[in-house]
Amino acid sequence: MMNDLNRTYPPRAARLAWTVRSVRAAFAATVGAAALLSAGVAHAEPQGFLETLHRNTTLINTVPDNGDQNPYALVVAPVSAGSVKAGDVLIDNFNNSTNMQGTGSTIVNYHPDTKQMTVFATIPRDLKECPGGIGLSTAMTMLKSGWVIVGSTPSNDGTTGTKGAGCLIVLDSNGKVASTIVSPNINDPWGNMAVVDNGTSATLFVSNAGFGVGAATENSPVFKQATVLRLDLDIPEGKPPVVKKETVVGSNFGAQADRGVFLVGPTGLALSPDQKLLYVSDAIGNRINEIDDPMTRDTSAGVGRQVTADGLLHRPLALATAPNGHLLVTNALNGQVVEVDPVAGKQLYARWIDTDKAQSPPGNGDLFGIVMTPAGDGFYFVQDDVNALVLAK
Q: How far apart (Å, rounded) are the C-alpha atoms in residues 134 and 91?
């Protein structure tokens, strides 16, 4: 063994310099590694909700025994009542068995626990209390009191040339018609509802796209008469909701008759978490707008302020609010859902959720309703080309 005394050591100053350099190098390596780790973590953290989703699962075909098709509205039941369990997914149909638009009369119920579907309601097509009859639209909700409210945008022959003004239909929790809501302010309730439900009272927001619109032509005119209506409801114990007050909070949105899709008009409605803003998808304007103080205002804000437009939006339709406060927007002209940060006014991502190449571009005209899962870890949507309910998670 070599004796330490026989080793050759560098001079003290050199040893000190070497030690300093070693410490600095080790410190730099540590800082560098930490920076890389931090950068990796920052990169790995999702910047939006769509990044957290991994797959789409087709759950059911939504066509009931009477052959109704073209699924539109989606609602996740907030409570168990009648034939509905909390967490069930209600889906309505806009077309009948011959695929005529504005003539669908059924609401089906998907039960996630059994993975089965039942028919919740079959509403008489010629319901006389509803001007023009029945053609169930994207406007639908279920209240905590168990009442289901659904919009009708009806037609006699599948075209806007014979459309009626429609109504809102109130159903009990077993799917039976209890009453209708008819008003000069209601004309083809079209878009998915935004709702604040306090149990014994509720506030509904619904868009109306029928004002001024007639038969579709090759170049149908745009009528800037579509509105967003707020309905303040009282819900007496054991009795159907009644309208206490109605207020037009948005107006002058564009609407247009269309041979292919019946109507193009404001469709998506969603409230900000603090309820101080109502977001509206303006399909004709290819934009998302916001309306101030929707819960309390007593006059129309017109079309409100623009949040974002164009870009990834291709005729925006239904809206849903993700747990991070971002908006999820379905496109009518392709099979994508777009995530929007409404506070920053930025479009973050577009994700293909319908890649059916039978349409051009893929998924064109297929997407309508969208609603979050109860756990907020995904969303349900419909592909109306194949009459399917799909879960993105």
A: 15
